[in-house]
Input
Amino acid sequence: MTGVHRVVVTGLGAVSPLGHSVAAYWDNLKLGKSGLGPITLTPAPEELTQKVAAEVKDFDPLKHFAERQLSTLDRVSQFAVVAAREAIAQSGLTFDMPLSLRTATIVGTGVGGQTTLDESFRRVYLEKRTRVFPLTIPKLMANAPASQISMDCGLRGPSFAVASACASATHAIGIAFHMVRAGLVDCAVTGGTEACITFGTVRGWEAMRVMAPDVCRPFSKGRMGLVLGEGAAAMVLEPLERAQARNATILGEIVGFGMSADAADLTAPDLGGMVRAMQAALDDAKLGPADIQYVNAHGTGTAANDETETKALHAAFGPHAKKLAISSTKSMIGHALGAAGALELVATLLAVRDGIAPPTIGYLEPDPACDLDYVPNEARALPIEAAVSNSFAFGGLNAVLAVKRFS
Amino acid sequence: MSDVAGDVIAIIAKKKRVDKPAVELSDKLLDLGLESLDAVEMIFDLEEKFDVQIPYNANTNNPRTEFETVGDVVAAVEKLIAQKKS
Output
């Protein structure tokens, strides 16, 4: 296929702090459940200053992988493959020839195989061992999740990793969307994954001084910062005509993707960069501000992000900003960094499909600097025809996706 | 001037973003052009130098206004050092 195609989503997969499937994840988001809890994944968590994270709980890799395959998979790749398998199973596609050759695998991750890195550093520096595990390098490389999905699922088309910190997954899905739309590939398996709740990484985040000690309260008065999360989400994208020809269930349509770089501060959010990315996504989708009913915000829960994102929503949407239902999934699943954009796009697609805006939990009372409708604490039923999902990364790299109800 | 004051001034002098030959105790942190990451790095340098823990969350604290002057930072560090010894 060549030319310009409408791009639809026919499969979703998720491994999240609120469950290991899309159904469990979405049900818990709608209920406003919190996925936050004590840190248990690291050695000696009692030594850490930070006590809370949103871990993927009770994940038993042996339920999903034979021991031989497991020895090649860091936790970050385990999540990615499990999510991709779920998405592909839902799509009903089998990747025989020639579709296998024409299917892209594009996967975002912020930092790759941190568990492997942390374990090998402990061996080398702490235990003074002279040997690390033989697959240390191919387990920790940032492209491992993309490679492992392509191997596990037999996808032989273009495949690579996308790294842009907290926007990695959104960039990955956006590029996959554009490739399918342009006819460069006939299908794409895409998303993002992260598993970086390791001793060293948590220490790194502690040093940034931006983490909430207990609860993540995006856009609320009294918010004290972000909480780290982890997980993965994947989706199958294909041209509308292929999906219709095989009578696939269409879960939603991706219609726009916008990107920008702040070229300013390394970590401080930038109003101009956010606005340009949102406007680029709307332009790409050929949608106006008034066509959007729901925004899945970046909404990290830091003082600076939430205030700047609110200003950016005012600037990008004008008076219509007041009418938007805006929520932060991070209030429930923490900040899954390179997976965040994929987990949040799953939430956005299902919000549009079901006409339900998931809530922003932990919301106490309005902050004068955040004066929009953040769907506080309880999900809300409302008709949603189109929505956007925001991701704004450290390094000043911004990515925004726009989706529409399929009709 | 105490040893602590000299060390604090040296740390802040590395972070300042204005053209000023010498940092003095009466200088205001905001006037020295410290940005948010500079503040986080300054606190780290102070903690490392004096082996103290400075409670600080960038979402709720602002050292550039809470400690208005360089002298305020010196006083806070001296207090933490005294607490550690007691």
